[in-house]
Write a structure and sequence with these properties.
The structure holds 2 protein chains of 2 kinds. Chain A is mainly α. Chain A has a single domain, classed as MetI-like (MetI-like fold). Chain A has 9 helices and no strands. In chain A, α4 packs across α6 and α6 packs antiparallel against α8. The longest helix of chain A has 38 residues. The N and C termini of chain A lie far apart (56 Å). Chain B starts with a helix and ends in an 8-residue tail after the last helix. Chain B is 32% helix and 23% strand. The relative contact order of chain B is 0.16. Chain B has 10 helices and 12 strands. Chain B has 2 domains: 125 residues, D-Maltodextrin-Binding Protein, domain 2 (3-Layer(aba) Sandwich); 99 residues, Periplasmic binding protein-like II (D-Maltodextrin-Binding Protein, domain 2, 3-Layer(aba) Sandwich). By secondary structure, chain B is of the alpha/beta class. Chain B is elongated. The chains are: A mainly alpha, B alpha/beta. At the A-B interface, α1, α3, α4 and α7 of A face α1, β2 and α3 of B.
């Protein structure tokens, strides 16, 4: 019995690993996407718009099947057409991170875009007037202010992303929901193990919320006090 | 549903994701039958997909080893065709896409042979076919189906058992009540709204008869396995066109049926012959 709990705990580690790695990837994609959308260059704007529209409009489950299985089948067919006997096996951890990151990058794009638009334009114009380059303006002026506006939306995305990891068992990763399902079916005691897994999710999200609330307080220092 | 996903994935084949190429297979179960002669050092692998969420056919022990009737059959077959079984765990929803993507060679995970699935994968001959049975109170007088007249029987909606109950029981005056889930049937038997059920014999044994609320209930009537209602049984799925492997496996199934290995595995899990007719 305790063996099942241990395996679910191991699955929880995997869930934490996949979600954190996917978050990094999603933030990078989100920043790139927001930059593209605000760049004003038609090609970049179109690309980013297609990305966010497509990804936010298609269910995650379908996207995962498409990217993982479609990708593998395509690669294998390609190899076969080239006359090779080898078969490709995509690493499921990398695939899970990339797929979830790719999906949540679209949500992050919109969150960051909205946050950047909330900063008064004069701030950036003043920086340029002082002779700061684009990169320096972003790092010193835009980014610190953007974080404050982006955090609420970011928190939401993060919580949904954590729960989306429950879908990655679909591509062959043994995360905790799947392990809980295995344990409950082996023992025919569904509630014991699902409640345990739900509790672990709750712990994870609560810790995240606590950290993010600290961050939010830090980044709105001065602003709230000034408003009183 | 699965066909839709498949065609979608084929369309999406262009959107490739390049990643690493390693894959850690699930730990193999220890071979239950120790082979007499020392096997040649390296046997070619046979990658077997299982979804270990279906006790007692495929499930995991608490230390994480795949086990169950399906797994024992897989081991016996690998032994027979001189391959080494390597287990890959896969969720049921993506079982067939994974086969198409060559993540594994065969599915040995209690997959029923159906006409819909036959359109996208090939099947071996069946390796088991659990019959369905009628379950009522053991003190119910029963001579033939007519003695069930006036009784209320619960069945799972959309199941083969529902087809059977509507076809054979309703005409003799049984009240057939469909439910969304089989455990709701058990709850309503307990509450007295139902007199019994028609269900897969293995499911009803583990889920009801062996539990306290199943006390005083038991099977009546014949073993139900009419192909008209219940289909072809459970087989091993493999990619279309792999006829050599399919023939090997079919020969393997025949061999373990003949040499008694099948029977001893069946006895380990069930108190009846799980192969069916």
């Amino acid at each position: 019995m305790s063996g099942y709990y241990a395996s679910i705990l191991q699955g929880a580690l995997l869930t934490v690993g996949v979600s954190l790695a996917a978050l990094v990837f999603a933030v990078l994609l989100g920043l790139a996407g927001a930059a593209a959308k605000l760049s004003g260059r038609p090609v970049l704007v179109t690309l980013a718009t297609v990305y966010t529209t497509l990804v936010r409009g298609v269910p995650e489950l379908v996207l995962m099947l498409l990217i993982f299985y479609g990708g593998t089948i395509g690669l294998n067919n390609l190899l076969e057409a080239l006359g090779s006997k080898a078969t490709v096996d995509i690493n499921p951890f990398a695939a899970g991170v990339l797929t979830i990151g790719f999906i949540y990058g679209a949500y992050m794009t919109e969150t960051f875009r909205g946050a950047i638009l909330s900063i008064p334009k004069g701030q950036m114009e003043a920086a340029w007037a002082f002779g700061m380059g684009r990169v320096r303006t972003f790092l010193r002026i835009t980014a610190p202010q953007m974080v404050r506006y982006a955090l609420p939306g970011f928190t939401n995305n993060w919580l949904v992303l954590i729960k989306a990891t429950a879908l990655i068992s679909l591509i062959g990763l043994q995360e905790m929901t799947y392990l809980a399902k295995q344990a409950s079916s082996a023992t025919r005691e569904p509630f014991t193990f699902f409640i345990f897994a739900a509790g672990l999710f709750l712990v994870y999200t609560s810790v995240s919320l606590w950290v993010l609330r600290k961050l939010e307080r830090r980044f709105s220092m001065g602003v709230k006090r000034g408003r009183v | 549903m699965k066909i839709l996903f498949l065609s979608l994935s084929l369309i999406g084949a262009a959107a490739l994701v390049g990643c690493g190429k390693t894959e850690t297979p699930a730990p193999a179960a220890p071979a239950s039958e120790t082979s007499a002669a020392p096997a040649p050092a390296v046997l070619p692998e046979l990658k077997v997909a299982i979804d270990p969420t279906y006790e007692p056919f495929t499930f995991k022990t608490s230390d994480g080893k795949p086990t169950g009737f399906d797994v024992d059959i897989a081991e016996a077959l690998c032994n027979e065709i001189k391959r080494k079984c390597v287990y890959v765990e896969q969720v049921w929803d993506s079982m067939i896409p994974g086969l198409q993507a060559k993540k594994y060679d065969v599915i040995i995970s209690s997959m029923s042979i159906t006409d819909d699935r036959k359109k996208v994968v090939d099947f071996t001959d069946k390796y088991y076919n659990t019959p369905s049975r009628i379950v009522v109170r053991t003190d119910t007088p029963f001579t033939d189906l007519n003695s069930l007249k006036g009784k209320s029987i619960g069945v799972l909606k959309g199941s083969t058992q529902e087809k059977y109950a509507m076809g054979d029981l309703k005409p003799v005056g049984v009240r057939v009540v469909p439910y969304e889930a089989q455990d709701q049937v058990y709850l309503d038997i307990k509450s007295g709204r139902l007199d019994g059920t028609v269900a897969d014999s293995v499911e009803v044994t583990g889920g009801f008869l062996r539990k306290p609320e199943g006390q005083g209930y038991g099977f009546v009537g014949p073993v139900l396995n009419d192909v008209k209602y219940f289909g072809y049984g459970v087989g091993i799925a493999l990619r279309q066109g792999e006829t050599a492997l399919r023939d090997e496996l079919n020969a393997g199934i025949k061999a373990i049926r003949a040499n008694g290995v099948y029977e001893s595995i069946s006895k380990k899990y069930f108190d009846f012959d799980v192969y069916g007719e």
